[in-house]
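Figure 2 data, in text form.
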Amino acid sequence: MKRIISFLFGFVACCSLAFTQNAGIKTNLVHWAAAGTPNAGLEFALNRKYTLEVGGGFNPFTFKDYKKAKHWIVQPELRYWLCESFNGHFFGLHALVGEYNIGGMDIPVGRLSKFKDYRYEGFAYGGGLSYGYQWVVSPRWNLEFNLGAGYVYLTYDKYPCVKCGSKIASGTNNYLGITKAAISLIYLIK
């Protein structure tokens, strides 16, 4: 009898936890605007104060004049909420992994200006810390701001132009700076 009562108590506790957990499906509007990258994420409430988000994007497109910002990225993040999950301020710990093939893009900012005259292919691995805030827009919709900084290790092969040429260099680069930027629209599943 004790086993049956223990089992029923455990079953009811697990079911009540399952029904109280929230999940959200999201898309990062910054990723869409910056590179036209289709992206999506899924965030689960682990409890009242913690959530786990797994987001990613994939851009297979080549633009006119052979310009490209082809890439894929996966970026999981563990979040701690100051108030409650999916509401208010949060701090996050994120990781990232991705592959890129970028060239012909005129980005006149620091090291990114090299993308205009050369093409780079490689992998990126890293992580960092972030801060964000979610606004409740309606019972099913939220809007989120999230900004993170950290470290990324990059491997690359360098090519002389965006559509042709033999590899002219290979190397690695260490990046310290912005690793996450998001303004996300979220649909909550309850």
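Caption note: The CA atoms of residues 128 and 159 lie 30 Å apart.
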